Amino acid sequence: MVALSQKAIFVNILLCFILNIVNARITRHYKFQIQLQNVTRLCQTKTIVTVNGQFPGPRIIAREGDRLLIKVVNHVQNNISLHWHGVRQRRSGWADGPAYVTQCPIQTGQSYVYNFTVDGQRGTLFWHAHISWLRSTLYGPIIILPKTHQPYPFPQPFKEVPIIFGEWWKADTENVINQAMQNGGAPNISDAFTFNGLPGPSYNCSAQDTFKLKVKPGKSYLLRLINAALNDELFFSIANHTLTVVEADAVYVKPFKTDVILITPGQTMNVLLHTKSNSPNATFLIAARPYATAPVAFDNTTVTGLLEYEPTKSLLNKNKKLPLHKPVLPRFNDTSFSIKFNGKIRSLANSKFPAKVPMRVKWRFFFTVGLGLLPCRRNRSCQGPNNTRLSASINNVTFVQPNTALLQSHFFNKSNGVYTTDFPANPPIKFNYTGTPPKNSMVSSGTKVVMLPYNSAVELVLQDTSIVTAESHPLHLHGFNFFVVGQGIGNFDPNKDPPKFNLVDPAERNTVGVPSGGWVAIRFIADNPGAWFMHCHLEVHTSWGLKMAWIVEDGKLPNQKLPPPPSDLPKC
User: Coiled-coil ranges per the record (predicted)?
Assistant: First the structure.
């Protein structure tokens, strides 16, 4: 064995030093002041809860590997908690944010520092409030750039533009959901959708509040799309322009071209927009409207913005009104488009960005997800069918929010009276899930969780039901990404469907749409100790109880254990 010369050793040390500087982990500090702000939309001013008076909220920018310290100070009367949606939170579950799951909320006049590292992730995510319906105005982008000198696996764009989809009510959203929970009916629908907080010209007196994307010809733009709407999946399109999908939920995907994007609440998607080689002397409408599968009222409006090319010299002097091109969006209930679109999303699955799909699973679960009914409270009249209250459940259990956080109760072995560990692995009653529903549509209630040993390989089939109505459900899992190995319409067949699973390059996501009247199968490794919420990202369904939690136990090694809570963790 030849000994290295002193010069070679010096060069190696210098290279290591340079690499450490290049990939240095930076600690980034943010201060979020939760405060009230008057905002005018649709010719009406209302007071909303904001971060730093901004709507939408401030953008968080970091590089892969950076540590984030975000101090949140609550100056409003509402209890507050914030969630960093899609951030893995490896061994930092105390910073995940869902109220009464990983923390008690931040009370008026109190503060909490969310402390976490963005390890092994790069792309577009977002942050939002995770208590009641406050995320209707408390949300903003999280942009995680690759490590320095690590290029995107697609051509470097000329410019990057976040577009965050929101949902706007003229009324106070806390009153909207509180009224619905009292009367047992569906909450009032929203009045508008927004691009970056702006409803645009399709709504009354909103032409001045229009999102405009100004572009140069012959350039490539990376649009970072985020669906922060409360209750609506959205179709999105730009007239006369094709989009190339390159990332979903902060995971690179095999690029594919499409004229229309479908994005559920909780999902993010990066798309490349290639502008036309010459200025086309026209303006192009950017539009989004709901994909809605249930036969119930929904906000059937369209949010619009404008794609405007830099004007040519000949146009600058003419002050000429340009023709406006409009996109064609699918029908509001086009489930076949949804199935086909989601089927195109595939992991890169290469040596640099492998798809580490669990090939063997030990823990198998079959969860029905859907609506149900609860009895009306005594001496009350309710707006659900036959004087009942509308509800939602997983395996017929509607989740009851505890009065203290699950994670603290688990960590300090004080679960008695807080939660039970008997969440059913399968539906309590088997029936034709997507056919004629059973006569008894009543759900049971409880704060039930599933306990998982550290490093468990999990397969979970999520099955929509036709109880009350079949409907698409975007399910979000905290603390993990998962692989979408299969999906289909109708009832899942445990014999015929698993052989068709894609275990080579399935989509890796944190939020997946369970097809209306169908099923989806996911796999993940439970390698993150803590209490992890799983819920429908349609906020109305979360309010009705379509949620549960997984508690992942510590592993044996020190780096497989959840550290103790920070000293400023809010108290209930």
Answer: none
Residue of 39, 119, 108 whose CA lies nearest to 84: 119
Q: 46: closest CA among 230, 187, 169?
A: 169
Strand order in the sheet with 363-375: 444-446, 397-399, 388-394, 363-375, 456-464, 518-526, 482-489, 507-509
The closest alpha carbon to 547, from 483, 481, 475, 482, belongs to 475
Three-state DSSP at 13 gives: helix
Residue 482: which of 313, 355, 325, 339 has the closest Cα?
355
What pLDDT, on a 0 to 100 scale, did the predictor assign at position 431?
96
Residue 185 and residue 118 share a domain: no
Which CA distances in Å does 307 have to 166, 213, 237, 401? 19, 5, 11, 44
Residues 210 and 277 in one domain: yes
129 and 185 belong to one structural domain: no
* N-terminal to C-terminal alpha carbon distance within the chain: 64
Mind listing the pLDDT tens digit for each residue in 513-562? Answer: 999 999 999 999 999 999 999 999 999 999 999 999 999 999 999 999 99
Helix (H, G, I), strand (E, B) or coil at 284: strand
State how far the Cα of 344 lies from the Cα of 266, in Å rounded to an integer: 19
Phi, psi (degrees; rounded to nearest 5) at 277 = -65, -30
Peptide bond into 56 cis (omega under 30): yes
Average pLDDT over residues 51-67: 98
Q: Is 6 a member of any domain?
A: no
Q: Contact, 345 vs 264, CB < 8 A?
A: no
Q: Are residues 280 and 421 in the same domain?
A: no
Most distant pair of Cα atoms in the chain: their distance: 89
Are 283 and 143 in the same domain?
no
Q: Are 521 and 564 in contact (CB under 8 A)?
A: no
CATH number at residue 450: 2.60.40.420
Name which of 117, 7, 138, 134 is nearest 62 in CA terms.
Answer: 117
